[in-house]
Amino acid sequence: MSDATLTSPAVEPVVQPEPPRPHDAGSLISMRNIWKTYEMGSEKVHALHGVSFDIPKGEYIAIIGPSGSGKSTLMNLIGCLDTPSQGEYWLNAKNVSEMDDDELARIRNQEVGFVFQTFNLLARATALHNVELPLIYGGVSSAQRHEMAKKALAAVDLTDRMMHRPNELSGGQRQRVAIARALVNHPSILLADEPTGALDSRTSMEIMDLFERLHSEGNTIIVVTHEPDVAARAHRVVSIRDGLIEKDEKSR
Amino acid sequence: MRLDDIKESSLMAIDTLRANKLRSSLTILGVSVGVITIIFMVSIIQGLNKAFADQVESLGSNTIFVSKFDPGFGRPPGPSEIHRKDLTMDDAEALRREAPSIAGVSPIHRLIAVTTRYQNKQTDTPILLGVTPYYEFVHSQYVARGRFIKDLDMDNRENVCIVGVDVVRALFPYEDPLGKEVRIDGSPYFVIGVMEPLGNFFGQSRDNSIFVPITTFDKYYADRPFPGVVFFIIVRPQTRAYVKSAVDEITDILRRRRRVPINEKNNFGISSQDSLLDIYNQLTGATALVLTAISFVALMIGGIGVMNIMLVSVTERTKEIGVRKAVGATRFNILSQFLIEAVVLTAIGGLTGLVVGEILAFLINRYSPLPAYVPLWAIGVGIGVSAAVGIVFGLWPAWKAARLDPIEALRWE
User: Fold this and answer.
1) Chain A residues with CB within 8 Å of chain B CB
2) Above 0.90 for ipTM, yes or no?
3) Pairwise CA distance, residues B332 & B310, whole Å
4) Min distance B320 CA to chain A CA atoms (Å)
5) Is the CATH number 3.40.50.300 carried by domain A3-250?
6) What pLDDT score does A3 carry?
7) Which among A113, B77, B317, B364 is most buried, taking Cβ atoms within 10 Å?
8) Quick check: A120 and A134 in contact, CB under 8 A?
9) 3-class secondary structure, B212
């Protein structure tokens, strides 16, 4: 019996167990035998049981799974908000798994663009200022910042809404501001967590169309979702269940 | 940290303050009160000090004050001091003869509040001073019109007097006082001179005096005991450089004349301007210490207000902190953002406090006898201290914010 079946007896893994191999230098993301363990009192809870996979540059991938599957944990790890308890995570040829808080902040700033379900814009700042935020922490000069933020807002068709505050924008517009913020620094990956969860279906379609366009422009996009419609737009779908990869399918 | 970061953080801070106007103003008020307290206290103490130094200087340059009482301020002499042997005219004469560092000696008999009349006018407040012809030179106070007391007046115990301008104002509003006869405690005197005006000392006029020959004074008041009549000797040293040696010589001469045993303390008091200032500074030094403590407590309270509000702010903005961290803010970025916010709060409080404190000081100067003076360093201290309060009391909330786990913070609702 393999390690994986020992720790997660309920599910017969389809792809797992994968023999740990050295990280793929050609991949943008390379995860090797990633474990994430939380201590709840005296009990140890394994959120991830040795996950391994690769994402090449330019891929459009959806990560799906029911709640409690370890999907969010995996997303936090990919987004460098957290580090694995065990295993190696290489992002853009950097070993993220060994980094401290400040180095992780730097990686998030340079390599990851987040899109959240609830947009998470600064309420009292204009769209332009919200988009500038990563650049501020990236140490970009204010003139250059303006230029880059304007370009990013133009890319999501919000040039005429630059000086509006979030409460003056529709849900779809807010999410587009958030996407502009995610892309302004030209990160390696665009990491979206339920990006359409707070939007109506028509607006959701718009956002998904935008993702498609961004993908066609060469961006690597990772969407974490539990909506099959959203996942169906991706070119590869990774299903997580009980802390393991259950399926990994290329849809087109 | 770059200037850009500070600018960004300051703008954000001001924005946050605007978003929570009432809360922010209350916090600012707390800090202001602290700074106002500091400025207010400093201005009063400094004002008093400055006024005192100026006034002591104006009393006559570098004079030395000798009496049978120990020097002190507003402190009534103890019984042992009152029972000391009086200083005498002979002592004054001995000082003049024997002390080489001394340029002049002016023995003075003083009686407070003598009733003085001229025709139907009366004043009860003047101070009667029995003096010698040396008075003018020793005190650097001169007659403006007429003449001062001469040796002949002394020898003949003449009933002549020189009056200060306040007395002139009270008794001779429309007349020339020279040559007129006034009655002092019922005895007739001729006015032979008017002193030049001296102005005020701590809100008290120094021009409400009547000078008579000390021999004439003795004629009428020889049997008046202390505290009615006070005798003291004012000594003027050669120059300022001779103050110390003059004090030493006076001490030697008086100890010898009053037969003070070698191992006993002086049974008389000598104070120079410097020692007056020393005593005064000791007094205000103690006061200043108390006031500093009070200011400190006031600032502490303001600071606790700042800390409280910053903790609330951090909790309220947990999600925002999470977002900032997600897009790449380091712990230091977050820490400095909240620190700057706290400092902006306290700096505004400090500036408000400074302005209000200055206005208060101005009003006090204008409408009360207390002098108030805000030295430049107090302004610096006010700003510096309020900023320091911001840093000290903002540090813990800011550190709390900086340490937030980005995942937890993003999940916070």
Assistant:
1) 76, 79, 81-82, 101-102, 105-106, 108-110, 114, 116, 120-122, 124-125, 133-134, 136-139, 141-142, 181, 185
2) no
3) 17
4) 7
5) yes
6) 44
7) A113
8) no
9) strand
